[in-house]
Amino acid sequence: MPKPKLxxxxxxxxxxxxxxxxxxxxxxxxxxxxxxxxxFPEATRAVVKGPYNLTLxxxxxxxxxxxxxxxxxxxxxxxxxxxxxxxxxxxxxALRNFKDVQEFVSAVYASPQYIHTLGTSTPIADHVQVDxxxxxxxxxxxxxxxxxxxxxxxxxxxxxxxxxxxxxxxRGNVCVMVAHGTPxxxxxxxxxxxxxxxxxxxxxxxxxxxxxxxNTDSLAKGWSGLxxxxxxxxxxxxxxxxxxxxxxxxxxxxxx
Length: 256
Ligand code: SF4
Ligand code: SF4
Fold this sequence. Notes:
alpha/beta, about 40% helix, globular, binds iron/sulfur cluster, 12 helices, five-stranded parallel sheet
């Protein structure tokens, strides 16, 4: 039996999520034994043509070329999984969506006429059908291995959609909001990181994006009670997952 073919594509991103695959030091040889890594320019010299059984897509759509390429990627993939905040929510670069991108282009580049960019940074699912979205900035390598394994064995990935708070309780973390009055996005953020930030007495800043039913309105009211000002609430919801709908709507609601 030929091994299933795995492809890894990149759009607008920092490469951090695809590097999570290379970061699987102990498991990488097992992965390489189970699949034929056919397209992964970050890690391999050879390219094996598609179609691919499983394609991991990192990054957001920011150029006219991206719009065309992602359609080709979809056509050549049996299953397509997006990885990271860029691919699932537009990433930090989606902050442009709240402004006029041409103003940035004129201010940053000496010859803006050579810049071919879209006015928005959008997630892959806005352009093609996506079979599964893996959150995080960057993603968790454990969730990545679980997801790759699940698609290879034809089952649903066991990636929980609940909040970072659940992870805090499991670890025995003291709640930083209740105990110290530290603003934390954990109650509305999807788990997956192991509640790293609260474990170090810091508030979560939402790098895994919204959990399945986030009550952002209630959390923002709680933050106001802690004395957080409206512009800081806007900024808190406008980071890596600023264009994810619940975070976007909450930030807009607090914009003057
Ligand atoms: S989600 Fe974060 S770590 Fe992943 S590619 Fe985007 S910026 Fe990099
Ligand atoms: S606690 Fe929040 S900000 Fe920190 S790593 Fe986890 S999801 Fe990201």
